[in-house]
């Protein structure tokens, strides 16, 4: 037993599958001071390309992420060291200039489309969750979200979905389902799956002598 080691839960699945909703639903069961959320999207690489070129990057490819930095910062948090987390701005397709100070916590939820594609990241996780939502539902949610929150037009979202998001989902993301311990259909509103996860997290916290 790794006494006092924080618990790391990986939550993955396609874009707009409900990963963030699952993470929030878990959050709601614990007091804020015991959990933190680390989004893989914060670790998109910085680019010096002009905006028009940045728009065309395949953001659903494993090489779009600075995985060594995510691995280093997750390792730091597990070792109870604080980090300066990068901030990503979807509206400019680039990292923002600021960083966010993140203090270590007993439960770390790592959320993102490709967190299970990297073996070194998988090795840091205690529980691996895949949120499984049909492609048509995900694309509808994505259109709504990207137009409301990420500064995209309908044509932008459709064009990006067909050229990079959909093919990369089937090539890189969906195959990582085999690494998951739990597959959750329909995301954050699956109360049975959320209750099972919360019960398991509480059991590991007790086993490691950590209090909520
Ligand atoms: N079960 C659901 N029913 C309806 N809309 C949902 C559901 N889960 C998530 N959404 C919506 O879909 C969008 C994407 O959900 P989110 O949890 O952010 O997905 P992800 O983190 O996988 O991209 C959000 O706008 C969210 O409000
Ligand atoms: N500049 C960017 C960077 C990323 N994306 C898309 O974000 C998706 C991942 O975020 P989710 O919350 O949906 O998991 C991913 O599918 C990228 O295509 C983007 O559109 N622009």
Automatic annotation (TrEMBL):
Pathway: Pyrimidine metabolism; CTP biosynthesis via salvage pathway; CTP from cytidine: step 1/3; Pyrimidine metabolism; UMP biosynthesis via salvage pathway; UMP from uridine: step 1/1
Xref: PANTHER family: URIDINE KINASE (PTHR10285)
Enzyme Commission designation: 2.7.1.48
Subcellular location: Cytoplasm
Record's protein name: Uridine kinase
Entry similarity comment: Belongs to the uridine kinase family.
Binding locations of ATP: 13-20
Keywords: ATP-binding, Cytoplasm, Kinase, Nucleotide-binding, Transferase
Catalytic activity entry: uridine + ATP = UMP + ADP + H(+); cytidine + ATP = CMP + ADP + H(+)
């Amino acid at each position: 037993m790794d006494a006092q080691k924080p618990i790391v839960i990986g939550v993955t699945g396609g874009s707009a599958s409900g990963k963030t909703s699952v993470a929030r639903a878990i959050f709601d069961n614990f007091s804020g001071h015991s959990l933190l959320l680390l989004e893989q999207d914060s670790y998109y690489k910085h680019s010096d390309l002009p905006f028009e070129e940045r728009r065309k990057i395949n953001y659903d490819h494993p090489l779009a992420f600075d995985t060594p930095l995510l691995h280093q910062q997750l390792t730091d948090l597990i070792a109870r060291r604080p980090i300066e987390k990068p901030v990503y701005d979807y509206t400019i397709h680039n990292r923002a200039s600021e960083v966010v100070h993140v203090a270590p916590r007993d439960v770390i939820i790592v959320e993102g489309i490709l967190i299970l594609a990297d073996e070194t990241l998988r090795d840091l996780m205690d529980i691996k969750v895949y949120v499984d939502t049909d492609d048509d539902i995900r694309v509808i949610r994505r259109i709504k979200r990207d137009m409301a929150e990420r500064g995209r037009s309908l044509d932008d979202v459709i064009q990006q979905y067909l050229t990079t998001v959909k093919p990369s989902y089937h090539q890189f993301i969906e195959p990582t389902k085999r690494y998951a311990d739990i597959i959750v259909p329909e995301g954050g509103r699956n109360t049975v799956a959320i209750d099972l996860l919360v019960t398991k997290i509480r059991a590991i916290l007790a086993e490691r002598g950590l209090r909520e």
